[in-house]
Amino acid sequence: MQQQTGILLVNLGTPDSPATSDVRRYLKEFLLDPRVIDIPALPRQLLVRGIIAPFRAPKSAKSYKAIWTEQGSPLMVYSQRATELLQEALGSDYVVRLAMRYQSPSIASVLGEMQKLQLKKIRVIPLFPQYASATTGSVHQRVMEIVANWQTIPDIEFVNSYPAHPLVIETFAENGKAQNPDHYDHILFSFHGLPQRQLRKADTGKHCLSSGSCCENYGRHNQYCYGAQCQLTARSIAEKMGIPRENYTVCYQSRLGKDPWIQPYTSAVLKDLAKAGKKRILVFSPAFVADCLETIFEIGTEYQEEYEEMGGEHVQLVPSLNDHPRWIEALKDLSTAPLEEIGAV
Q1: Which among 241, 259, 330, 289 has a CA at the least distance from the CA of 130?
Q2: Which residues pair with 5 in a beta bridge?
Q3: What is the per-residue pLDDT across 28-87, written as a single tens digit (0 to 9) for each?
Q4: Rounded Cα–Cα distance for residues 133 and 199 (Å)
Q5: Which residues, listed in sequence order, are joined to residue 250 by a DSSP beta bridge?
Q6: C-alpha of 334 from chain center
Q7: Of 24, 14, 30, whose CA–CA distance to 50 is shortest?
Q8: Are 193 and 294 in contact (CB under 8 A)?
Q9: Using CB atoms within 10 A as the burial measure, which of 45, 133, 188, 324 is most buried?
């Protein structure tokens, strides 16, 4: 019998429920990851357990309740649906499984199930188009920690990033066109933020953030830079849609703490647009392949409320990839294409 290939899809994670206790448990596991809050262990423990989790969990729980569906967390629902559709697309020669980096189903439990199947090969696909140490890097590390204890280790492949994958770009562009972009005064590509120190730590060439435009020119020297990959994604979507450069801005949301994060901040850009008299804003969030708290609530609700207070009228979120048929085609390609062809620009 021919051995099967395993495909492990890994998304960030979600609380098991919107209850404060479950949200607190999720925040602790997430923020205690040294790749997420990259400070020494003791200060990280004190910060997360003593300040962030106790005070942020009740507020975050209210936000999760606002987006929770009858089926559960949108991120989980869309991720599970994409997993099922990918299994159908790949057929019986593949075993497709979904894990979450934080909470359930855990990477350890899913890999344990895959280990019993005696697979020929496992390909790990983090569901983050752009590489960051705090996301893709953390997934890769966790997988390696687990399989290091296996007596028999099959061939294991890691997909690093796919910021300009043609099918990913086409899907975002199609979703954007469905919102009638000509009816908006400006377009934002709002990515999840990272502390600037993390970008510098990831840069072995020592040129990161050396100028205000260093991330705008993607090439071999910065091919692993999160900021450069975000710029590449935004530029690729804009070109696909025919959006002139002056009509869009790349920015970053979800800042935590007082240290400087990658800029410009989405909230600051919205403030400037409101002052300039821009009334209607269309927002892409291409760091996420499934709509979640950061897209549905942070953009769709919080930014909308803030923008109205600033004098604007409407902030419209472009839906993420979710379970779009072309996204499933992209996942099929990420599952089967030679690794050297994935992410090639």
Answers
A1: 289
A2: 94, 121
A3: 999 999 999 999 999 999 999 999 999 999 999 999 999 999 999 999 999 999 999 999
A4: 9
A5: 189
A6: 16
A7: 24
A8: no
A9: 188
Residues 6+ apart with CB under 8 A from 206: none
Size (the chain), residues: 345
Q: Which residue's entry shows tokens 């994935």?
A: 342
% of the chain exceeding 90 in pLDDT: 87
Cβ-in-10-Å burial (0-12, 13-18, 19+) of 5 comes to: buried
What pTM did the predictor assign? 0.95
Count the Cβ atoms, other than its own, within 10 Å of residue 155. Answer: 10
CATH architecture assigned to 166-317: 3-Layer(aba) Sandwich (3.40)
**Mind spelling out the 3-state secondary structure of the chain?**
CCCCEEEEEEEEECCCCCCHHHHHHHHHHHHCCCCCCCCCHHHHHHHHHHHHHHHHHHHHHHHHHHHCECCECHHHHHHHHHHHHHHHHHCCCEEEEEEEEECCCEHHHHHHHHHHCCCCEEEEEECCCCCCHHHHHHHHHHHHHHHCCCCCCCEEEECCCCCCCHHHHHHHHHHHHCCCHHHCCEEEEEEECCEHHHHHHCCCCCCCCCCCCHHHCCCHHHCCCHHHHHHHHHHHHHHHHCCCHHHEEEEEECCCCCCCECCCEHHHHHHHHHHCCCCEEEEECCCCCCCCHHHHHHHHHHHHHHHHHHCCCEEEECCCCCCCHHHHHHHHHHHHCCHHHCCCC
- Residues with Cβ within 8 Å of 261's Cβ and at least 6 positions away in sequence, in order, are 193, 194, 195, 196, 252, 255
Tokens of 105: 């189903």
Q: Which residue has the tokens 């086409």?
A: 170
Contact 182, 316 (CB under 8 A): no
Residue 106 identity (one-letter amino acid): S
Query: CA 296 to CA 282: how far, in whole Å?
Result: 13
Break the chain into its structural domains and give their ranges.
Answer: 5-160+325-341, 166-317
Give pLDDT tens digits for 9-43.
Answer: 999 999 999 999 999 999 999 999 999 999 999 99
Is the Cα dihedral 231, 218, 326, 74 positive or negative?
negative
